[in-house]
Amino acid sequence: MGGLAAVVLKFMVHFMEELSRNISAHLPYHFIYVFLPALGILATVAYLHLINRDKIQKGIGNILVNIKRNRSNILFNNVYSHLISSSLTVGFGGSSGLEAPIVCTGAAIGSNTGRFFKLSAYEKTVLLAAGTSAGIAAVFNSPIAGVLFSLELLIGEITIPTFIPLLIASATGVVVSKTLYSGQLFHLVTEGWVMQALPFYILLGVLCGLVSVYISTVAGKLEKGLFVNQNRYVRAVAGGLLLGVLILIFPPLFGEGYHDLQQALNGNIEAIKDESLLSQYLNHPLALLGFIALLVFMKIIAAGITIGSGGNGGTFAPTMFTGAFLGLFIAYGCNLTGLIHLNTSNFIAVGMAGALSGVLHAPLTAIFLIAEITGGYVLFIPLMIVSAISYIISRHFNPHNMYWHDLVHERNIHPDHDYDMLSSITIDSVINRNFTAVSKELSIRDFYKVISLSPANIFPVLGADKRIDGVVLVDEIRRQLFTDDFADHTVAEIMITPPAIIKYHEPVDAVMKQFDRLDVWQLPVEQDGRFIGFVSKSALLAQYREAFIAQHKQADLFAH
After folding, report:
1. Is 6 helix (H, G, I), strand (E, B) or coil?
2. CB atoms closer than 10 angstroms to residue 377
3. In the list 102, 129, 179, 535, which could disulfide-bond 150, CB 3.0-4.6 Å?
4. 278-295: burial string, b at 16+ Cβ within 10 Å, e else
């Protein structure tokens, strides 16, 4: 199903892109490029508003939220809404990629398949990742990269029980794609790399890391929305026209940009300027070098405008495009000096991997994706060097990739927290309701009798309305409790105010944070203002351990 979705999306987008290019070829100066993106974004916004009713969940970040907080449940309309909306956006020239939409589509297919068969949250997560792997593998005809993408970005760990289903799904997606819509995304002709180019690959790695920080920052800001004070249709038209003007000057910004990228890989570098409004001024090699440099910075701005004005797409393809033209800039610029000759195709391919590694924080995915889609397996060493350097520099500035950054800082969702297992535990299951309540007026002499009849070491002090006034911690006051002059005192003098009171409907992950923050082992629980019992950290940890063991038994394909 993931493979079929990818085939449908590729066919629709490529059909509309070819139609757009044919129309522009018959008009002077390709001025139709000014209006086509606005038409596509406007159609996307209208579909999402009037037909989809804004039920779509855009972006890979929302998939991560569903995995962490929603037991991997994704709304059914995401199975088809991304195919329609992204094909309208990108097909008419929107400067974004199809990878995020196909990831969202594949994830929705996997999630809803799991819901149909009433599977557990863990099994739905595996199916969600399998759908994603199938989609990515089918789009790029790259089965290994499809598996690694899900493992590095969605699941975050590599285990055999998850690895095997992803392998099967990814391979199946590629078979379906090759059967129905064959063709390599890029064709790279190379004889390998040379040692003399190694310092320049290191330079490319450093620049890819810095450019990755630029991509994450700019995309993050622009995608949050343009012309925010205007209604959605005004935003769509204004953003689309602004994008159209940019495309008129920089034609490679049209759509995914893969058409011009292939021209550059073929060595036909002059072709990237041919349709530009400024083409007559770009005949000098230095002017063309400046044009390439501008493309490095403009693609992600164009992508941000596309998504921020209401279009549907991702920054995956724009990131590859940016890295490719950064590699071209270094190789072409060095070749102009005449001091050394660098293989421009090699640097284009390796630059794509460097940018992806830095932006996604997924070096394995970047290395194998570029090796698979370009056929550049002889470039493994440069791919490894550039991807590693870019990743290290990007991680220095951004501890989290661009998808996790907003989730961590704005929604307090962290990649290393297992919210799913915590959400399987309810407060009700760990409340100790076996308690002995005392009143503030009770004398210590009478309190001795209460202690002698109870094994507890914590006693709630309740008022007439069952509201908790305080607690008595026997371990804390044991020594003074049994002194001769203390028997005539009252409980009010030895009770303490609890550091926090847990509400009955409070999520378990919030309760665990309370325990860690306060460094305590027991806290009282209230329901509708009335004390109902205590919850202990040890009971929560025991339940978490049981949930952890149960999930791993479920994950083991051969544990029966």
Report:
1. helix
2. 12
3. 129
4. eeeebeeeeebbebbbeb
| Cα 361 from Cα 393, distance rounded (Å) | 10
pLDDT value at residue 162: 85
Asked if 13 and 7 touch (Cβ cutoff 8 Å), the reply is no
| Of 502, 505, 501, 503, residue with least CA distance to 426 | 505
> Which residue, chain included where needed, has tokens 């994008």?
243
Distance between CA atoms of 529 and 423, rounded to whole angstroms? 24
**Dihedral (C-alpha) 313, 315, 321, 325: value to the nearest 10 degrees?**
140
Q: Which residue has the tokens 């069952």?
A: 466
* Inter-CA distances, 538 with 137, 169, 532, 550, Å: 45, 41, 18, 18
Q: Which two tokens stand for residue 533?
A: 């019992």
DSSP classification of residue 471: E
Give the distance, in angstroms, between the CA of residue 261 and the centroid of all CA atoms in the same chain.
26
546-550: long-range contacts at Cβ-Cβ below 8 A with a sequence spacing of 24 or more? 547/421, 547/424, 547/425, 548/421
Instruction: Report whether 85 contacts 59 (CB < 8 A).
Output: no
Q: How far is the CA of 198 from the CAs of 213, 322, 358, 414, 436, in angstroms?
A: 23, 21, 19, 37, 74
Q: What Cα–Cα distance (Å) separates residue 217 from each residue in 83, 204, 250, 294, 371?
A: 27, 20, 22, 17, 27
For the record, the structure tokens of 529 come out as 């203002």
Which two structure tokens, joined as six digits, stand for 502? 């847990």
Q: How far apart are CA 402 and CA 399, in angstroms?
A: 10
Would you call 526 exposed, middle or buried from its count of C-beta atoms within 10 A (0-12, 13-18, 19+)?
middle
252: helix, coil or strand? helix
Helix (H, G, I), strand (E, B) or coil at 432: strand
Q: How many residues does the chain have?
A: 560
Nearest 5°: phi and psi at 418? Answer: -95, 85
With a CB cutoff of 8 Å and minimum separation 6, the contacts of 481 are 444, 474, 494
Give the C-alpha separation, 83 to 303, whole Å. Answer: 18
Mean pLDDT by 10 residues, the chain (560 residues): 92 85 71 87 96 91 88 93 94 91 96 93 92 94 94 84 92 94 74 91 98 94 84 94 93 90 89 86 94 96 95 93 97 94 94 97 95 86 97 95 83 68 75 90 86 87 88 79 71 89 86 86 91 90 78 58
Structural tokens at position 50: 């009037």
- What's the pLDDT score for residue 19? 82
H helices, E strands: number in the chain: 23, 6
pLDDT attached to residue 122: 85
- For the chain, the first-to-last Cα distance in angstroms comes to 29
Compute the distance between CA of residue 33 and CA of residue 244 in angstroms, rounded to an integer.
5
Q: How far apart are CA 104 and CA 136, in angstroms?
A: 10
Label residue 20 exposed, middle or buried (CB < 10 Å: 0-12, 13-18, 19+): buried
Nearest to 335, CA basis, from 197, 228, 167: 197
